[in-house]
Known about the structure:
Strand order of the largest sheet: 2-3-4-5-6-7-8
Structural class: alpha/beta
Number of domains: 1
Shape: globular
Number of strands: 16
CATH superfamily: Ribonuclease Z/Hydroxyacylglutathione hydrolase-like
Strand content: 15-25%
Order of helices and strands: EEEEEHEHHEHHHHEEEEEHEEHHHEE
Amino acid sequence: MQIVHPHPPAPGEALELLPGLRWLRMPLPFALDHVNLWLLQDEGGWTAVDTGFDVAPIRAAWDHVLPEHPLVRLLVTHFHPDHLGLASHLQARTGAPLWIPPQEYAFAQFYFHQVGGCSVAATAKAFRSHGLPEPELQVLQRLGNTYRIGVPELPETYQPIQPGQTLCIGGQAWRVISGHGHSPEHASLHCAELGVLISGDMLLPRISTNIGHSPATPAADTLGRFLESLERFRDLPTDTLVLPSHGLPFRGIQTRIDQLRAHHAERCDVLLEACRPGPQNAYGLMPALFQRDIQDPHQTYFAMNEAIAHLIHLERQGKLTRRTEGGRILFSA
C-alpha cells in the first residue's frame, strides 16, 4: 500500500488532485480530528461528496470554498454526522439537492427523532445488558441525543442512490459500490475513467473503520457484513487512487483489504482466548480488544459497539456461545 498525497490541504483550501477533482479537509472535535470531503466538477458547478460535522470551523471553511465552487449537488456517502451534518445548511445556502442511499436517510431520521432502537434509551438498555457500569451509562444518558449536535437539521427531501447505480457527474460515470457494517448502506463511488475510488469510511489507510452495532438489530452480524463488503472492492485495478474519508489518499486496494481482514481476524482471536477462562461480557473484554484504557464517553460508545459486533461475529461462527444471567449477556468459548 502506498500513500500518494502526504500533505493534506488546510481547512478552507481546495487542493486539486486531478482536473475537476478537489480535496477538502475539515476539522473534527474528536480524537479522530478530521474528515476528508471531495469536490467533483459537474454541469453548472460542483458536486460535494459529504459535507462535514456542523461546527463553526467547518462552516467557516465552507465560506472560503463556496465562492469558487458553487454547489449543484450534495452527495452523501452515509448518515454519520461528520458526513451528513452540514447538508441542510449547505442546501439552504446553495439550493443543491441531497443525494443519499435510502437506508442512510432513514437512519438519519431514526437517530435524529430517536425512533425505536435508535434512541439513547435503547442504547443504554443494550449497553447495560452487555456490562457497561451504571456510572458510565449515566454519563451517556446525560449527553442525550448527540446526533443532533453534529446534525442539527435534516433536508426534508432527497434523491435516492441505489447499489450498483451509475451516476453521471461532469460527464463521467461514477458507479455506486454499496457497503455494510459501518453503516446500513454506505455508498462508495468508483470512476473507471479516472481510476479513482471515493471509498468513504469503507477503506481507510491506517485505521479500521468502526464496526457498528444497533440495538434495533441486536443479532445482526455487522462485522461479517463489513468483511463481505470489502470483497466488492477487490477486483478494482491495483493502481486505483483511493480517496478515504479519514487519512491520506493511497493506492493498493488489495493489500489494504488483506490487512483489514487480518486485523479483524487477529482481534477475534484475542477475544476468543479472553473468553476461554470463563464467561465474559462486552465491557469486560474492551481492554483486551483495544489494549488501552478508554475514558472518553464518545470513544466508549464506539468501543462498546465494536466489541459487541466482534462477539456476535464469533457467535455466528460457532466459536462462542451466549447466555443471559440477571439481564446480563455473557459469552463463553
